[in-house]
Specification:
The structure holds two protein chains of two kinds. Chain A is of the alpha/beta class. In chain A, 45% of the residues lie in helices and 17% in strands. Chain A is globular and about 60 Å long. In chain B, 32% of the residues are buried. Classes of the chains: A alpha/beta, B mainly alpha.
Chain lengths: 365, 268
Amino acid sequence: MTQQRRIRKSSRRTFLKSLGAGATASAIGSGLALHAVAQEKNVVTFCGWGGSFQDYLREAHFQPFQKETGIKVMETTIPSLAKIKTMVDAKNVDIDVVDAGGFVLIVLGKQGYFEEIDYDAIGRENTSNLIVNAARKYGVGAYTASECIAFRTDVFPRGAHPKSWAEFWDVKKFPGRRSMNGGERGIRPNLEFALLADGVPKDKIYPINQDRAWKSLSVIKPHVVKWWTDSGFSSQLLLNKEVDLATAYNGRADSLKMQGQPIDVELNEASNRMNNWSIPKGASHKENAMRLISFMMRPQPQAHLAKLIAYGPTNRLAFKYISSERANDLPSSPENDKKGFWLSDQWWADNADDVTARWSKWILG
Amino acid sequence: MMAPCVAFIIIVLVYPVSQMLALGFHNASGFTLAYYARFFSSPVYLEVLWITVKWSAIVTVICLVLGYPVAYLLTSVSPRSAGLLLLLLAIPLTTSLLVRTYAWMVILGQQGIINKTLLWLGLISKPIELLHNSFAVVVGMVQVLVPFMILTLTGVMKNIDKGLVVAARTLGANPVRAFFRIFVPLTLPGIGSGCLLVFVMSCGYFVIPALLGGPRDVWISMLIETQVNNVVDWGFAAALAGILLVLVVAIFCVYERYWGLDRIWGGV
């Protein structure tokens, strides 16, 4: 909050100074504030997905970084593909570091919307200990998350809960209201789950046989009361007892469990993915951005974050600072890595329009 | 006097909207109508448009039925009471749309107030489905849009000479007849403007159908959002937005032809 206030205050000053000169329509709202920050030197602007996760990032990453370097981390939210694209196209890049999903990284990286990551800045020790595929050209693996089975423990006590997608699909043995990821926000990885439920082995998922996947998905369709549109939404549906079973992000569901709510997750056959730290092309504090990213790739801040929320580190050295009990909750722990599968962002980037068109038809059919 | 206002609208509305629409007419190889052809060649997209129009029309009719008596009340009571009622109408408008939508989830859910009460009264044995269907969408939309209907109707009703109704009564019409033969026809411009406003606003809503709706409640705004953020096909997104815009402008034109747009804010 105080940071936001600070942004607003300094923006007013700059605004008064440059009144009439730089005030364009695009300067409405936070755009104006960040534009002012872009002139300052000892800052870096981070754009994340907000909510409690960003609070954890602040605690585990930004505050220690600020203390060590004296560089102030300004924050803003929702680095959507549309936002990054518009910002870079307009050559008005007031965000220095974004939390980019794998899909965004592939689509925008290819089109030149991100700066290349400087692995020398991250250092050889940390770079060589990154998990598989974390060191990419236009972004470096930030944290790992699983989309998995989440369930209410008052309906399915731990042990008597569905432990695979075949069991999630089994409405006779596990009766109950269900919720899954909805088409408006992309239905990955429902097709993968549907294939697993239909008996396809984990290493044979890709390339996805769409006909088979949609057919399997149709089996569960009548039991899904809500196709959720936002990752926080599915945990909320479980919390409100709106549903008994859902596909959910493990971190959000785990936070509810830690708060004592009757919710738990099953990481078997979970879909693992990695988000990335990326620098939009033409960022005004590129150097500071790289310093922040290399700080966030160190083992201790990553371990700190994993303590606050059950998203896994991308630097294997972080596990030295994580208890084995906590490691059980994290997607990238060696044990859980074997249980789940890695979502293919490339397959989804190649097939997004086809799947989306089929989804619209399927959901209305 | 109008110049700054017109300039403002051109800068913040006309220019960006035309830039956006232009996206729908060209791709890598130049001018194209492919995006529009894609829309009209697939029954799915037409169905989504139909869902949007159909439920917007239903929302509009319900807003009219609920709003008309309230507007009548507003013009019949003392100015002080009217002020108070207007305040009550305005308070929800100051609350975020998202908050109001989430409130409906709390009210209509399986564990919501309505289901809990009905269960407690023994009227039902298991929770009924009130949330995540078209019913919930209509409830949420009506709550948000009904103030616009009421305010528009009030504007027109205020300018009606109540003496005309009295005259009808003295000439022998009973109160019901006087109301329906004299008062209601005089409010027709208000009904037209209110319905137009509510319908047009409703067609573009995203949050309410997305959060309160069920699997089949796919509105065109949701399709646009998917194309922008998920498929990254901005050309098709622009075409979808263009089609929605044409539909709305067409309705405006019909209205202008028969009623005149100058009446929209209650002018006579």
